[in-house]
Each structure stands twice: as C-alpha cells, then as structure tokens.
Amino acid sequence: MRQPSQSAHDSQVDARNETINIYVNGDILPKEEAVVSVYDSGFMLGDGMWEGLRLHDGEWAFFDDHMDRLFNSLKSVSIDIGTGPSGIRDILDRTAAANGMTGDAHCRLMVTRGRKAKPFQHPSLSRFGPTIVAIVEHSRPVASLKGRGVRLATVPQVRGLPMSQDPKYNSHSKLNCVIACLQAEQAGADEALMLDPHGFVNTTNACNFFIVRRGEVWTSTGDYCMNGVTRRKVIDLCRENGTPVFEKNYSLYEAYGADEAFLTGTFGALTPVAEIDGKPIGEDEGAGPVTRHIGELYSDLIALNVAEQKAARR
Ligand SMILES: Cc1ncc(COP(=O)(O)O)c(C=O)c1O
C-alpha cells in the first residue's frame, strides 16, 4: 500500500503555535497582529533573505554559522540592517523569551529590503526598510521522518547558475524550489531531487542531499545548492571520524544504486530517503547504519556547540 505523503519539514501538531508572539520590526506582537505591509519588498518581489535556526537548551545552534551566511547574503544584495549578529541574537532571544521557549523551537528569521514607496521593482523605492520578522514556533519533527524515509522524485526544474540567481542566496523568492516541489508532488513523491544544469545530482528543493555508497559518503560539489550549515557540519564530522566523504559530481546512476541516502537541514538534522523515482534505497525504507551513526555524531555536535555558547556567555 502507498504510504501517505510527508515532507522533510513535518512537525508534530502543537496547539501553542496558534497563540505565539512574533517579532516584527522592534515589536513583539500576538500572531494575529503580526503583519507586514502589502508594499513590503519581500511580499512584492521576494527581495529579502531568511535563516532557519533551532533553539536547543536556551541557545541557537550554530548561531555564528547562520549569521555568517545571513550577513554575507545581505551584503551581497546591499541590504543594511544597521545591526550585527549580536542585534539578531537579541531579537531571537527576546522572541523566544516572549513565548517561554528554551528548546524544541524553530525560528524563521526574515529580513527584507522593507516597505516600498510605490509598487514597483526598483530597490530605491524601498525607502522604509528594512523589515525584520522572527517567527519562533514550538517544533519537533514528527517521529515518522526518522522511521520511514521520504520519497524523492527527480524533476524537470533544475538548479540555477550562479550568474542568474545564485542558489546560495537563502532568498525569500524560492520559486525555483517551489516549482520543483510541485513537480515532485505531481509525480507522487514527497519532495524533489534536483539536478544541476549539467545533469548531475545536486540537492532537494528544501534540503541538501547525500548518498552512502559502499562505505563512502557522497554529496554534490557544493555548486548550485544552498551552502547548508548542516551540510557543512556533516562533511566535517565524516572527515573527523574517519568516514570517507566526497564532494563530487555524480549521476542518478549512482544515486539509484546507493546503499543509503539522506537529507540534511536545520529543521530535521538528517532525514533518511526511502526511494528515488520509485526505486527503493537501502533495506528498510529508513535510515541505514551510516546515516544513523552520522546522525548521532551530529546530535553530539549540537550539544557541544550549545555548551560552548553557554560558556562564552558567562
Ligand atoms: C534549498 C535549501 N537547501 C538546503 C537547506 C538547508 O540548510 P541548513 O542546513 O543551513 O538548514 C535549506 C535551508 O535553508 C534550503 O532552503
């Protein structure tokens, strides 16, 4: 029997999320009052950047890595928010505190060029910005994500070249990824496996993608995909723990024949892949031994990072 569909970002239903408080431009507001203008650059054009961060034991895991990516992106598109990482940390901490959260929470931090004077594209019309919003929700990935993996379908939508819209921008405009996801859904899968412009396996629409082949861990070269924080941590963990890991070009031929495959992302950490284009990956639709092992190392790394951040704050 066909399994019900799931997404790599499925979280447990939590009624408290209906009444959370949300940060909007200096204010912390009840969810129903937390709104931005219809003239906002993010709404009108997708002209903004975002980060997803998770709260563990009072700390934002890998905060510095997320800020490095965010501020690199903002600089690249000339959005000046008048504060640095410490200002962002303050926003995130205030929002978590306003919701009584210390862990199992996920933040979507959004920064746009702000409200425009007129409904047209030119960035100079964004005169009242920036807009900064932090939504922090109670969030636990559903257990089934670890139990049975996601089903991927390869889709016609490919990753972009860096000189059109560099896929390293975590931009508000995710239309390329959204189209890919729609195509995957219409093909009966959960999420999309996207190829690069040369036909090599690259990434999924919302997570980075790894395969395990004959004891080796492979992922794409890093071109054309999001420079995922989790992706980098997993590669480093493999290196430090003696698991051969390669950032390289490979095709669907090797992906279909993989022993295991998994996705990486801040929300779900490592999520096993059960099938690609209807072809089963691994023995039991779930995580294989290598995926499980790296997943444990990654949990330990979060705990270490949290402890280090706590010590640095003292
Ligand atoms: C397209 C895409 N790939 C991968 C990721 C995972 O990145 P990270 O590990 O930093 O959460 C994201 C998350 O922002 C993403 O949007």
From TrEMBL:
One GO-annotated biological process of the protein: branched-chain amino acid biosynthetic process
Sorted UniProt keywords: Amino-acid biosynthesis, Aminotransferase, Branched-chain amino acid biosynthesis, Pyridoxal phosphate, Transferase
GO MF annotation list: L-isoleucine-2-oxoglutarate transaminase activity; L-leucine-2-oxoglutarate transaminase activity; L-valine-2-oxoglutarate transaminase activity
Entry protein name: Probable branched-chain-amino-acid aminotransferase
Entry keyword annotation includes Transmembrane: no
Pfam families membership: Aminotran_4
Upper taxonomic lineage: Bacteria, Pseudomonadati, Pseudomonadota, Alphaproteobacteria, Rhodobacterales
Required cofactor(s): pyridoxal 5'-phosphate
Domain of life the protein comes from: Bacteria
Pathway it works in: Amino-acid biosynthesis; L-valine biosynthesis; L-valine from pyruvate: step 4/4; Amino-acid biosynthesis; L-leucine biosynthesis; L-leucine from 3-methyl-2-oxobutanoate: step 4/4; Amino-acid biosynthesis; L-isoleucine biosynthesis; L-isoleucine from 2-oxobutanoate: step 4/4
Role this protein plays: Acts on leucine, isoleucine and valine.
Family, similarity comment: Belongs to the class-IV pyridoxal-phosphate-dependent aminotransferase family.
EC number: 2.6.1.42
Cited PANTHER family: AMINO-ACID AMINOTRANSFERASE, AMINODEOXYCHORISMATE LYASE
Enzyme class: transferase
Organism: Albidovulum aquaemixtae
Catalytic activity annotation: L-isoleucine + 2-oxoglutarate = (S)-3-methyl-2-oxopentanoate + L-glutamate; L-leucine + 2-oxoglutarate = 4-methyl-2-oxopentanoate + L-glutamate; L-valine + 2-oxoglutarate = 3-methyl-2-oxobutanoate + L-glutamate
